[in-house]
Amino acid sequence: MPHLTLDYSSNLTTLDADRTLLALNRQLVESGQFAENDIKSRACRLEHYRIGIEPAPRAFAHVTLALLSGRTPECKQGLSASLLAVLQRAGLTLPGAEVQLSVEVRDMERASYSKAVIGD
Amino acid sequence: MPHLTLDYSSNLTTLDADRTLLALNRQLVESGQFAENDIKSRACRLEHYRIGIEPAPRAFAHVTLALLSGRTPECKQGLSASLLAVLQRAGLTLPGAEVQLSVEVRDMERASYSKAVIGD
Amino acid sequence: MPHLTLDYSSNLTTLDADRTLLALNRQLVESGQFAENDIKSRACRLEHYRIGIEPAPRAFAHVTLALLSGRTPECKQGLSASLLAVLQRAGLTLPGAEVQLSVEVRDMERASYSKAVIGD
Questions:
Q1: Which Pfam families does the entry link to (chains A, B, C) (predicted)?
Q2: Could you give all domains of chain B from N- to C-terminal order, each with its CATH number?
């Protein structure tokens, strides 16, 4: 916890997944809400996607941040806005196209979350 | 918003991901619930899957539709049923196998959802 | 229902996705909570991931179990703990690295879940 997932359409060829994940994680560390080594993030490049039904060129990048339940709405809004700002600074453009950036914050049920750490 | 995800087992070799996403998006546009260019859909072909524990040939296709919170149960049931009907019309068969089709509608917390649009 | 997803960082080269999915499914069958052929599981090997911000070698495997709403907290805790135990027995190690294992149990809204079965 937290678990972050970055989904992005494959036409965002300027998106550097590893660099963007690091920038997102830095933002989460700076929030002061999480232990540094607890932040687990992954990026999925989507080969098959569709935005709407028109043939216009379109792209999107979407972050889902899954947190153990219990944080305040204000805290979650702040995290969401700050992650969106990271996406906005990532230089994601597609000439002639609309690029949609979005962030969802999702609660994970605390009572049934299990975790173990191996090694090191 | 909305975000649609289609997961399907890779033995559904007749599934045309791009065509199916377009059909699903058309259905969402027809529902009148969404702006056309807001509908962001992706398909994931699953190379590693397992249905139950028996060696019988089995397949599945599963849609998750994530919506900003606030819609009525009736609205969500209607969207779910209509997307399932799209899957049923997609000609997904696997000779001698059971193919399971399913649709989940999931609320996204509205207060902490963030969005920005770049370009165009 | 249920839908199980196993995400794991690609540095866990000893993880056999098919074998691990079968072990997870066996555990779900043994719980007595589900019809054998209803259990739909998939594994996603993550090529692009980042744990925290430090360069230390780290790995993770994360299971999400999505259930139709209505089960008790105790039932969900039991399922979560038993799936974590499967991960712990899977021999996931990375020399000199910390490997984080986790399980989330997530409710799916029952009223808007749709399903159909084709063939067989």
A1: CHMI (PF02962)
A2: 3-108 (3.30.429.10)
